[in-house]
Amino acid sequence: MKIEELKKVIEILRDEYPKLNAPIEKLKAHKKGDPFRALVCTLLSTRTKDETTAEVCQRLFERIKNWEDLLAIDLKELERLLYPVGFYKNKARYLKELARQIKEEFGGEVPSDLEGLLKLKGVGRKVANIVLVEAFGKPAIGIDTHVHRICNRWKLVSTKTPEETEKALTQILPQEYWMDFNRLLVAFGQTICKPQKPRCDVCPIRDFCSFFKLSQTS
Predict the structure, then answer these.
(1) Is 41 within any annotated ligand binding site?
(2) Where are the transmembrane segments (predicted)?
(3) CA–centroid distance for 202 within its chain
(4) How far does CA 6 lie from the centroid of its chain?
């Protein structure tokens, strides 16, 4: 897929997004553009379905309102609140530790730059980039399994890891498309371009897709 084709694809996905009713939208509703909520939700979403994360976040934010609440809550109670997100015991410890870091090292505020976010316990590049976009409105590309898979299916990149995909995309994708790239592709990947048995028959961008074209000739 060429960049000019990708621009058309992004516009199509923007139009289609409201119709998809994807799980990512349920999770985004809990973030509310708030740095505290955005960081907690995104960290919990790693290796967990968005539907599950959204349910856990709803329960969690009824009990936890800020970093002080996270510091004060008993670890076992926090673990119970986080179940059944993936690696919930590890994530409970991460949240307690990053709450301490934010209070002691960042003056109680979520850092608004990549370097600062990556210093927080349990925060990798994907989480940091998504927080930059959703909490601070800064251009970044969060690469999860959906984005990585779809970009390779489109032959937009030829990469083996999400880190390689991020590096490649930042070099070829105009920055004006960075902000909603993750949101659009995750929703598309959750509902149409699935890991197994992608729904090419209803795909709105299949005429641009290398994967679809190849499947028609095989």
Answers:
(1) no
(2) none
(3) 24
(4) 20
Q: In 3D, which of 156, 153, 143 has the Cα closest to residue 182?
A: 143
Question: What tens digit of pLDDT does each residue of 35-68 get?
Answer: 999 999 999 999 999 999 999 999 999 999 999 9
Dist CA 8 CA 3 (whole Å): 9
Q: For residue range 134-156, what is the model confidence (pLDDT) as tens digits?
A: 999 999 999 999 999 999 999 99
> CA-to-CA distance for 121 and 57, rounded, in angstroms?
19
Is there a binding annotation on residue 209? yes
Assign domain 3-21+141-217 to a CATH class: mainly alpha
Is this structure's pTM higher than 0.90?
A: yes
Of the CA atoms within 13 Å of residue 75, those in its CB half-sphere come to 8
To the question of domain 32-136 being in CATH 3.40.630.30, the answer is: no
Name the maximum alpha-carbon separation found in the chain.
60
Hey, where are the domains in the chain?
A: 3-21+141-217, 32-136
* Cβ pair 23, 52 in contact under 8 A: no
Residue 200 marked as a ligand binder: yes
Is residue 193 a known part of a binding site?
A: yes
